[in-house]
Amino acid sequence: xxxxxxxxxxxxxLVHALAGSLGSMVGMSTFFPLDTVRSRLQLEENREAKxxxxxxQDLVKEEGFITLYRGIVPVLQSLCVSNxxxxxxxxxxxxxxxxxxxxxxxxxxxxxxxxxINVLTTTPMWVVNTRLKMxxxxxxxxxxxxxxxxxxxDGLRRISxxxxxxxxxxxxxxxxxxxxxxxxxxxxYESIKRRLAGSELNTLGYFMIGAVAxxxxxxxxxxxxxxxxxxxxxxxYRDLSxxxxxxxxxxxxxxxxxxxxxxxxxxxxxxxxxxxxALMFAVYEKIAxxxxxIMMVQPRV
Length: 301
What we know:
- The protein has 301 residues and is mostly helical.
- It contains eleven helices and no strands.
- The two termini are 20 Å apart.
């Protein structure tokens, strides 16, 4: 396996990782207000679950236009690192085992491994930026008492000092379970690409494939994403322990709000993730193809 293991550190793998990282940042920057709506619906119990654009209008009226982009810098920083790790690991593994026949099952396995590595290494960054993003909501507390950090590094330092290092990995269990989301997305995306092999796909083609892949993954895993967000940010249920785990929190939501409680904000989430992922894949493919072309290197996909 020695010769094949060199592919993990190849130029091809690095290009895929950089292209995936840049593509994700472009996608998130473009549709960030939709992510803000999703977060607010998931975490604010008193906010009416209106349609996405109605919530956007409400937020602008209540807090000003700038609130739609609160926390975008740390989110982009985290996304840059997270997707670099994910794309690097996924394409590195594909290259290492390129001597085997490619299949949806193999893609799912590689994507799952990449997801686990990504979760374990980048969860602390996501814990901090979730709190930064939500720092403007009262959420049953005085806004002045909400944690405010001067960026990711300050947040990492303060959380570890004030709440313990373990707090930086809040929501890790549902995050590990949610590895199935990007894994499904990547497996579906790669599978559709293989079926269309030989076709000259344009930007719109990659956009549509990415949209279909993400729509399937998000719809199947949304309840876990909602629980993950509340574990990272912290809930405000007075009759539930602040240290409640994933199972306890899930059961509580089901008892209090029913199955609909696990799908609150799903419209905004699906809209945001589908559009963001679709644009990410379109940009990723174009960047990767452009770099391989100018460097006259044959890409391994």
